[in-house]
Specification:
Two copies of one chain form a homodimer.
Chain A: E1 5-7, H1 13-16, H2 24-29, H3 31-43, H4 58-71, E2 77-81, H5 88-97, E3 112-115, H6 121-130, E4 136-141, H7 148-165, H8 167-170, E5 174-179, H9 184-192, E6 195-199, H10 212-220, H11 225-238, H12 248-261, E7 267-273, H13 278-292, E8 308-313, H14 322-327, E9 332-339, H15 356-359, H16 366-383, E10 388-393, H17 398-419, H18 430-440, H19 446-455
Parallel strand pairs in A: 2-3, 2-4, 4-5, 5-6, 7-8, 7-9, 9-10
Antiparallel strand pairs in A: 1-10
Helix pairs in contact in A: 3-17, 4-10, 5-10, 5-13, 11-17, 12-17, 13-17, 18-19
Chain lengths: ~475, ~475
């Protein structure tokens, strides 16, 4: 039950210089704004930012566990039909806390998990070819019920289930997570009698992992959701102090804002030195990009704000992206995810004693090599003037990952205050959706379709 | 056997304006430099840039196919032990051309494929727990034989094979791809009698996918490597003309350079509207980052050059990154990968006729929805002044993907000329490697270790 720690030594001017590192004065200047940001956010906890309290919703946790217990052993596969915030948290926690080869394991009580977060016909069609819906539980997730991708998948798999099992028996193969009262998916639940869970009000998609959106599928595949929630609750407490240097969410938010606005680093690289945590980086990429990537400030000015999250994996990307990180433009700052204690101990055997380029490895462990490469990369980046911080996970556990999720959600909320934008909306995705509806010929979007067609370039430039 | 096309209409000033789009004058000004760059590159084809000719090395292709034929049906698993350029091409082509559920398919003659391109003990240890080395062929890939990650894995799996099968029988479970004459892995091949293939001279890791580095594992899992090579050879011919507007490699390189140096867009987003092509984007990310991310110009000045590749997946990332792409800073340009004809036709069933938010989907196909969302995203980005180009794949086939690989390798070589850097070295990765050797206690690196230890910050800043 160790603490997740943030080591920000290498992001400071005393280590990487004042051009690229944060000075004590810059941090001090953010003490007041950080305190105010925290107060503003905490004041909304019981109002519209209900996601902050998700770790404490114990009645809901029990309901999810009761359902998972009831379903245990009944299905070979659990399939999530959801996209964006309805998928990324589940992917992150499943990949962090189950084996990378979970879906290959000899089938015990735990089903395989597939998250179908795309509608490419070559993905959906292959899934139909390979897996038997009669052995599968589908968790359909959409707060509004209007998510076209998810609803198209729902219609498809619902029909296949009915063909295979009949209408009555198909019902228990579908579980719906949607708005508690309104929307088309809630209406469908009422008609069909599907099991359902709520997406509570005040819980936007990218802040929903600790709601039934993430908890239901995770509990179904054996994740210790209570451990995750305990970690999140512990971090929630750690993020109460108003002192910038004592509160990891405030400190992290201050670093992100300073790196972009004062040190001219538009890119936030998350480099996971853990295969298991790599996809937690994808979850954070949505949280950061969708929360802060905003055209308008809260007072209505055009600001075109937002850092760009870049995801990397150590040591793998040392052989792909590290050259750029070491020698390219000074336009990035780096966040390492590091794990002190892996679950597996594997020793490198000794052989070829006369071949020094190999023999030095013999008798050492994979952990030693992995950590040496991580630390070598960090030393090299630091010496090259590239500011970096490290989240130190004691191990990859439900408790440590739960801490991380809550910390980053709180941190991003505070960043919204520093950036002066609304961190909780996503107005920029509407335009593409409306254009897609128009191109699909959805009733009501005819004018937009005509406008797109008339505005398309007269001449295509091709090579 | 259709042609891969590059549609660059939406990257031009006539569509997105001169602040963000390329003007005819800017393209004209690059006609001469493009011609000279092409001549410079082509002159090195038979000298040091031997990767250009890989599609034409038919004797080698036959040797690979002969070996794959000999191994067919003998193993359940093929495992690549390689990292960076020894892994990314194989991952890209396997994910593009085999089913996303290939490893789950009822075992026919085609083995599963695993690419172990990391040394996280929790990855390596789980692999050991789950899979039987006695049913597995290991392809060990390192040109130098000094790649620590790969050699550590080789030592591990070699020992497990010997324990399980005895020394004599283990030999046929290992195939080595390394330098033809020198290096420690070549020496090991001689001692052990392993099957081996060469990494030819003049073929750097990130340009090696069409050498035995990629061809051997791909042939072993049933990829039509001749089709891929034919596509690459066809593109090689299409990239001969010296006219910028007639040569896709010259045009693509000119766009990349202009977007970064004239339009101030340091990020190159590759957004694959194809689940299958998503990991081809990872391959390109290495090619672009490692080739252009350079501190020094060829005349020795500090330039700290290089675009940052950002990988995205449509439609999935419409629900994650699109908000930022639409409304964030104007610091990106976008390359869509689009597929005209998917392999699977899946229709969305009709249901709930009275619920309009769902019923409009009934009777349409997943392809229609997928393409409408892609085109909607493209229209919306274009209207928001975000320049974009589209690679149009007629389908995801060996021939089309082969075209793409050769095009981008040639394009990146030309970019190197425009950027004025050496696109074929990677000096920036040495510092991290040496620091890792020092931290591992490898003989000969004691001084560096002492220096790292004495230079480490006196005080850690933690929260």
């Amino acid at each position: 039950m160790g603490r997740l720690e943030l080591d920000y030594t290498n992001a400071l001017s005393e280590v990487v210089g004042a051009q690229h590192g944060v000075t004590p004065q810059e941090l001090d200047a953010l003490a007041g704004p950080s305190r105010e940001a925290l107060r503003a956010i905490q004041a909304r906890r019981k109002v519209d930012l209900r996601w902050m309290d998700l770790p404490h919703e114990t009645a809901m946790h029990e309901r999810v566990l009761e359902y998972a217990g009831r379903m245990a052993g009944r299905f070979e596969n659990v399939v999530v039909l959801g996209i964006g915030g309805s998928a990324l948290g589940t992917i992150a926690l499943h990949s962090a806390l189950n084996s990378p080869y979970h879906n290959f394991e000899a089938r015990g009580p735990m089903p395989r998990l597939f998250v179908l977060d795309n509608i490419d016909p070559d993905l959906v069609g292959e899934f139909l070819d390979q897996f038997d819906p009669a052995q599968t539980l589908f968790n359909v997730i959409s707060k509004s019920g209007t998510t076209a991708e998810t609803m198209a998948q729902f219609l498809l798999f619902r029909e296949r289930l009915i063909e295979r099992l009949g209408h009555a028996a198909h019902v228990e193969h579908i579980c719906v997570t949607t708005d508690e009262r309104k929307g088309v998916l809630r209406e469908i639940v009422k008609r069909e009698g599907y099991e359902s869970f709520p997406v509570p009000d005040g819980v936007g998609g990218r802040f929903s992992v600790l709601s039934p959106v993430g908890l239901v599928p995770l509990a179904l595949v054996g994740i210790d959701i209570k451990g995750v929630l305990k970690g999140a609750a512990d971090m929630d407490e750690r993020c109460r102090p108003e002192d910038l240097r004592a509160n990891p969410a405030l400190l992290h938010a201050a670093l992100q804002w300073t790196m972009q606005s004062k040190k001219h680093k538009p890119m936030a690289v998350t480099m996971s030195y853990s295969q298991r945590l790599a996809l937690v980086g994808d979850w954070y990429a949505q949280l950061l990009a969708e929360s802060l990537g905003k055209r308008k400030s809260r007072d209505g000015r055009d600001v075109f704000a937002g850092p760009t999250p870049v995801r990397a994996l150590g040591v793998t990307d040392q052989h792909s992206q590290m050259q750029l990180y070491m020698e390219g433009p000074f336009d990035k700052w780096f966040t390492f995810l590091s794990v002190e204690q892996p679950d597996h101990a594997v020793t490198i055997p000794s052989a070829y004693a006369d071949l020094e380029a190999v023999s030095y490895l013999g008798g050492r462990t994979f952990t030693e090599l992995f950590h040496a490469e991580r630390d070598g990369a960090r030393v090299a980046l630091t010496e090259a003037g590239r500011p970096n911080v490290t989240f130190r996970f004691p191990g990859v556990s439900p408790h440590s990952v739960g801490q991380f999720l809550q910390l980053l959600e709180l941190s991003v909320a505070v960043m919204g205050e520093h950036y002066g934008i609304d961190a909780f909306d996503q107005p920029g995705v509407e335009a593409g959706k409306i254009a897609a509806y128009a191109l699909m010929g959805r009733p009501g979007f005819e004018a937009r379709r005509a406008q797109i067609e008339s505005a398309s370039p007269k001449r295509q430039h091709l090579v």
